[in-house]
Amino acid sequence: MQHALATPTVCLLGPTASGKTAVALALAQRLPVEVVSVDSAQVFRDMDVGTAKPAMSERAMCRHHLLDLISPEERYSAARFVADARRAIAAIRARGNIPLLVGGTMLYFKALRDGLSDLPSADASVRAEILERARSLGWPTLHAELARQDPDTARRLAPNDAQRIQRALEILHVTGAPLAAAYARRPDSTGERFELITLGVSDRSTLHRRIEQRFDAMIANGLLDEVAGLKARYRLDAELPSMRCVGYRQAWAHLDGETDFDAFRQRAVAATRQLAKRQLTWLRALPADARFDCLDPDLTERVSERVQRIEDRSAPTRDA
């Protein structure tokens, strides 16, 4: 029996360290879900510790999709995510199971839900010019330049968010218009319905402690060895998207002798907290169907009940 197209795709979005994976695995014990990762870092092969990728034992509990897709030498885009996610959702439905999107890369979810914007293709010469200027001036300087020309976009980006600053400046150069104008030229979506469940946080300091504890666990589990191995195995540089990921960027600098261990740890924890702050800003702006506190001791039960109700509502429409 297959789910009818009217059945919504369930999405569980939240900031880093909010417990999304644990909730998803608990759901898998109750319902026939398959997880579709919405994470721009977990697509990279051999980047397991620093991305908090589900362990193989966890993947054995339910099927996971969009993990380990590409080499750290490659680049991944929102457009490719949309294509990959749509294929995964269709295959999950064909097996009669429930697609459960889980992650924290809000831009990917927005692209999937709303459709891709009519953005210009990458311009290699413009991109090369921007990268050269970044090498000589630094990304914070280019972020300040972006703030003068496209303040709305700049406010959403960290001063060292190289990939997104580069793309925003590239679009400005090619179109002469800010990013929002390009996003406004959005084609129709596919009509896919999403049931959006978001995780917020009632006490930011508790989330910060979770982030710190999780990063210390990553260090104990071999994060620095993982990055050293990546540097030895692949042709990488510090500007590739894989090595711009939070944690990896700071580990790279430490291994290159730019920081001592304490500075590496402090900078990585601070960058992760900033990431969580940006994710929470995105989440507050999304029209969620249900919002839960990630610190609620009954979080798993509450989310499970919500998903069960969604499944119960859709049950009469399942038979083709």
Structural class: alpha/beta
Number of helices: 15
CATH superfamily of the largest domain: P-loop containing nucleotide triphosphate hydrolases
SSE topology string: EHEHEHEHHHHHHEHHHHHEH
Strand content: 5-15%
Helix content: 40-55%
Q: Identify the CATH class of the largest domain.
A: Alpha Beta
Summarize the structure.
This protein is an alpha/beta fold and 320 residues long. It is 53% helix and 9% strand.
Question: Can you tag this structure with a few keywords?
Answer:
320 residues, alpha/beta, Rossmann fold, Histone, subunit A, 2 domains, 15 helices, 6 strands, 53% helix, disordered N terminus
How is this structure best described in words?
The chain has about 325 residues and is of the alpha/beta class. Mean pLDDT is about 90; it is low at about 1-5. It is about 55% helix and about 10% strand. The protein is built from 15 helices and six strands. The protein is globular, with a radius of gyration of 20 Å. The chain has a six-stranded parallel β-sheet with strand order 3-2-4-1-5-6, with helices on both faces. The chain has two domains: about 10-115 and about 185-315, Rossmann fold (3-Layer(aba) Sandwich), CATH 3.40.50.300; about 125-185, Histone, subunit A (Orthogonal Bundle), CATH 1.10.20.140.
